[in-house]
Amino acid sequence: MEKCLFVAETDGENAVSHVWFYSGEGNPRLVQRTDVTSQRITGAEFAGAPAEMIAAWLRRFANLP
Prior knowledge:
With 65 residues, the protein is α+β, with helices and mostly antiparallel strands. It has one domain (4-62). The chain has helices at residues 38-43, 51-61, and strands at 5-10, 16-22, 29-30, 45-47. The chain has a 4-stranded mixed sheet, with helices on one face.
């Protein structure tokens, strides 16, 4: 699977509020449910917040276990 980057935006309490997705093709964009898979999360790079916080947000967003 291609390497991807998930970049978090946080709110005033440092909680993840939005996540941007970049896969090396095109421009970064707001993440969509179809971008989030367990395999992508495992191999991804993270920025903007701790990786664990971003991964948890992504799992909730995409309804992954």
